[in-house]
Amino acid sequence: MGKKDGGLLPCIDYRQLNSQIQQQPYPLPLVPAALEEFRGARIFSKLDLRSAYNLIHIREGDEWKMAFITPTGHYEYRVMPYGLSISPAVFQTFMNEVLWEYLHRFVMVYIDDILIYSRNEAEHRQHVQQVLHKLREHQLFLKLEKCEFHQPLVQFLGYVLSGEGVQMDQGKIQVILDWPIPSTLQRFLDFANFYRQFIMNYSIITASLTSLLRGKPKHLAWNPAAHEAFHQFQTIFCTAPLLRHLNPEFVVEVDASTTGVGAVLSQVVGEPPLLHACAFCSRKLTPAEQNYDVGNRELLAIKLVLEEWRHWLEGSTHQFTIITDHKNLQYLREAKRLNPPTGPLGSLLHKFSIDTPLEPENILPDDVISRPIIWDLEENICHTTLQEPAPPECPE
């Protein structure tokens, strides 16, 4: 099988062997969660190991299990081959043991990809030397042509990282833009879902597409609504914002429509102060939830936010503001008795330090600098910041 660098990779059918192997339940890092570690980092280096899996030796006596036949003869691997179901977990375990003292401090490892991040040049030089020393100590070799050192911006695992925040990889955006009308819709949605944290109201926008998969139909019933949603989705990928690194002062904005709920997590940046998006979340409403009145749909959106971003909001030393269209949140905090639907949310609210919620009508319309982001889910208005630099135009 051809590789991107022009080399060849043996492609061996290990399905029968994989069915007999005892799996190693070692988790790979969750990349979206790991992105939080880069807050405050300004300098990055990216390392790529050469022939990563082949750096692990097969236990003596087990080589015959990896045997394969070619027109030129019978061969046995003496090192861990590509194609084994346990190879990623085994190598991730090995790399975590090699660099364990640096993980979550200034190093992230995802199988054979290593990212070193630091706050300044002097600190970064020391961090790179420490990592290279460890790799040499364990006889791990780098593919120099794929390494980058001391960069203010770096592409890593489908993201573009910088001191300002996280962006989509432009190469992946181009894949979305060039995607033809899908004959296999699930594959397109799986690919796009990787970047859902960058897309406001992702679940609402894709509702026309996901509804086509209901009941697992044998044939895709493509309709005008799905066609419009597909092209709208491609356009939105062009205008996805830079997600800022988080600081403790948050503004949470929630809204609900008849089909879904959504929210944006923002923070105040710069002088004069502007709101910049840090994260998005959204969810389609179930048929039962679509029967809720407007107030209860708003409360459902708040519940989604508090659960989705709990690791950022709960226990924070700074209060955060929730902006909603209705006064239900204020009622929940003051009510002595709560009905069954709102009771769990009322208990959940007491775990968070929430500032007095603002309402859109209480915000001066001419106060452009400090005005929060207010959007309409029904019309899918996707402006995420005020006075941001204009996004690049979509290619024709």
TrEMBL record:
Keyword tRNA processing part of the UniProt annotation: no
Record GO terms (molecular function): RNA-directed DNA polymerase activity; RNA-DNA hybrid ribonuclease activity
PROSITE patterns: RT_POL
Listed InterPro entries: DNA/RNA_pol_sf, Retrovirus_Pol_polyprotein, Rev_trsase/Diguanyl_cyclase, RT_dom, RT_RNaseH
Any Pfam family: RVT_1
Alphabetical UniProt keywords: Endonuclease, Hydrolase, Nuclease, Nucleotidyltransferase, RNA-directed DNA polymerase, Transferase
Domain Reverse transcriptase residue range list: 1-161
EC numbers on record: 3.1.26.4
SUPFAM superfamilies in alphabetical order: DNA/RNA polymerases (SSF56672)
Family to which this protein belongs: Belongs to the beta type-B retroviral polymerase family. HERV class-II K(HML-2) pol subfamily.
Record protein name field: ribonuclease H
